[in-house]
Amino acid sequence: MDCESFQLIQVASGAKSLRSLRYNETFHPVVGPMIEARGLHVVQHRFIERAMKNPQIPFVIWDVGLGAAANAIAILEVFRDQEIAVPVELHSFDRNLEALDFALKHAAELGYFSGWEELVATFLKEGVVQFRNVTWKRQSGDFRERVFDLEIPAPQSVIFDPYSPASNPELWTVEIFSALRKRVGEAPCLVTSYSRSTSVRTTFLVAGWFVGKGAATGEKQETTLVASTLSLLEQPLERSWLERVAKSGAPGPLTNGMGEKRSATEVAEGLQEHPQFNSIHAKESKTKEILK
């Protein structure tokens, strides 16, 4: 493993984190790994509450962008502190284990591995570990292919935390978001993302998701919370947000490079018929959720 691809740095909060030298990006910048993992991802997914709604079926979480495993450990903390009988499957996706291997070798400096070192070492070696009611599995390879793997159960929660669209554009496309939406189907699912860009939000909408404002983290006053059903969002983007799309220099949607580019005005007009912004459709969608 090419551990020279990473270095330890101290972020503004004083916490230690990793920086990718290959992509020139810092993991969990400003506030550090665990504050961001807990506040941006764990809290918003309400794992315990949502898992208990259907205790007869496994609650499946996709961790897209395993990286140095801060998000995964934050999830394990939840089920350590509030043990429930519902079986949980945590599937962590990444092309390789370079970041995690580097991080574990610097566990003392990073801090958040404390008490988890043996479990993570086993995960690195064997690709699967059991912790109480949680089965943590590694899913290696290209997510553009793994998203279609029907042997991996569809998620009820997705931590979407790969490298940024600038560094890793192939994972932020309408094709990927549409494939993920298709895997979820009619089931309730939440997706958290650190991005708040207009183009990323537009891409999720075009792919069939509902999009809302997510929790603040670091220097960002808001992030993005995505759902398969409108009722899961406490702060859905309102129709007035389309005015921002119409004025944007990069309105999206992000694609794999194929297809005709549309103007910001055309993109905004196209989104007006999305159920989230079409008052008639939105009302019907909300009614259906209430009646379930």
List keywords for this structure.
12 helices; globular; 292 residues; Rossmann fold; alpha/beta; disordered C terminus; 8-stranded mixed β-sheet; single chain; 3-stranded antiparallel β-sheet
List the SSEs and their pairings.
Layout: E1 6-10, E2 16-20, E3 25-26, H1 33-45, H2 47-51, E4 59-64, H3 70-81, E5 88-94, H4 98-105, H5 107-110, H6 117-126, E6 128-131, E7 134-140, H7 143-146, E8 157-160, H8 174-184, E9 190-193, H9 198-206, E10 210-214, E11 223-227, H10 241-247, H11 264-271, H12 279-291
Parallel strand pairs: 4-5, 4-8, 5-7, 8-9
Antiparallel strand pairs: 1-2, 2-3, 6-7, 9-11, 10-11
CATH architecture: 3-Layer(aba) Sandwich
Main-sheet strand order equals 6-7-5-4-8-9-11-10
Strand proportion, as a percent range, falls in 15-25%
Helix content: 25-40%
Largest sheet: 8 strands, mixed
| Secondary structure category | alpha/beta
The stretches of 5 or more residues where confidence is low (pLDDT under 50) are: 280-292
Q: So how many helices?
A: 12
The span between the termini is 49 Å
3D structure, described in words:
This protein is an alpha/beta fold and 292 residues long. It has helices spanning 33-45, 47-51, 70-81, 98-105, 107-110, 117-126, 143-146, 174-184, 198-206, 241-247, 264-271, 279-291; strands at residues 6-10, 16-20, 25-26, 59-64, 88-94, 128-131, 134-140, 157-160, 190-193, 210-214, 223-227. The chain has 12 helices and 11 strands. Strands 6-7-5-4-8-9-11-10 form an 8-stranded mixed sheet, sandwiched between helices. Strands 1-2-3 form a 3-stranded antiparallel sheet, covered by helices on one side.
